[in-house]
Amino acid sequence: MEIKKVMVIGAGQMGSGIAQVHAMAGLDVVLHDLKSEFVERGMSTMTKNLLRQVEKGRISEADKESILSRISTSTDLTNASDVDVVIEAAVENMDIKTALFAELDQIAPAHAILATNTSSLPITEIAAATKRPEQVIGMHFMNPVPVMKLVEIIRGLATSEKVYQAIKDLSLKLEKTPVEVNDFPGFVSNRILMPMINEAIYTVFEGVASPEAVDEVMKLGMNHPMGPLTLADFIGLDTCLYIMETLHEGFGDDKYRPCPLLRKYVKAGWLGKKSGRGFYTYE
Ligand code: CAA
Asked: Where is NAD(+) annotated to bind (predicted)?
């Protein structure tokens, strides 16, 4: 199956990165969000990222312009009517995702694959909202998308081999490394990463060490590129909490219980880098 045009739903941190890597690989991209200001913000993030690549001499000004010219913007979901793949990177909320997939199922061409960038929600349940569950798949990118090599590909219960192969080939075309996993809460990436972050928050909550000390231990002691609390701020504390809740509910095991301090921060609106404050403060 030849994939030429993709729609990316959600122009936030993940969606804009996903749109950028597809346009850089020569595909036509429709970047969609609810409001034009969200789409504009996504376009401006991509423009800044590409400008940095030009300054570093990795791409020419003409490359930058041609990459950007492959991206069109949308606030109307009917623009999915001529795409080969939709990649949904909207908010992590099951009701929103199932409603979106049911609508996309009506709009997208019969051959189109409906992929989701969900970080932990069940692909099988999202697929069940459509009449094409064999064409629904998880395509989980890591943040920052232009830099991180992994794409975790998650098969739902009904995902066909053909669709899996098409998404694997697409990931390779983006110069990413696809890794196949099955549909269980948190898949592999967040089943392992989030309990580590949650445990780091417990060490602060219990007064074992300061956030700076926890991060320094993991950076210098384990060679992690950033400490777990910096990473949590970078991912978004609301997202971290949502993933822990998905793990806790999905496995029913208290080892996944979200730390009360994480809940408190989210309730306070301290969501990390995006809100200006989390475990650290940001300009
Ligand atoms: N967008 C695009 N490029 C970015 C970027 C961004 N937001 N942030 C950094 N970069 C680029 C920089 O431009 C730089 O590129 P060059 O090498 O081409 O110059 C490169 O990344 C390295 O950046 P820096 O030198 O400024 O900083 P660094 O060495 O600390 O690297 C990092 C930054 C790559 C983010 C690194 O700190 C890192 O690997 N952190 C961990 C990231 C991680 O764990 N991501 C997974 C999060 S979990 C997730 O995404 C899934 C989920 O479901 C929650």
From this structure: 10-15, 33, 92, 97, 119, 143, 274
Looking at the structure of the chain, the number of domains it has is 2
User: pLDDT tens, 196-236?
Assistant: 999 999 999 999 999 999 999 999 999 999 999 999 999 99
Assess if residue 282 is contained within a domain: no
Residues 175 and 250 in one domain: no
Is position 280 within any domain? Answer: no
Range of the domain at 250: 191-275
203 CB less than 6 Å from ligand 1?
Answer: no
Catalytic residue among 49, 152, 171, 198: 152
Cα–Cα–Cα angle for 162, 165, 169, rounded to 5 degrees = 140
First to last CA, the chain: 46
Q: What is the pLDDT of residue 283?
A: 86
- State which of 155, 182, 209 marks the end of a domain: 182
- Residue 208 has which token pair? 């074992």
The 3-state DSSP class for residue 181 equals: strand
Residue 238 in domain: yes
Residue 8 near residue 20 (C-beta atoms within 8 A): no
Q: Which atom of ligand 1 is nearest to the CA of 235?
A: 54
The reply to whether 10 sits in an annotated binding site is: yes
CA distance linking residue 167 with residue 180, whole number of Å = 11
Any catalytic annotation for residue 199? no
Distance 253 CA to ligand 1 centre (A): 32
- pLDDT tens digits, one per residue of 42-83: 999 999 999 999 999 999 999 999 999 999 999 999 999 999
Does the residue 281 lie in any domain?
A: no
Two structure tokens written together for 218: 């993991």
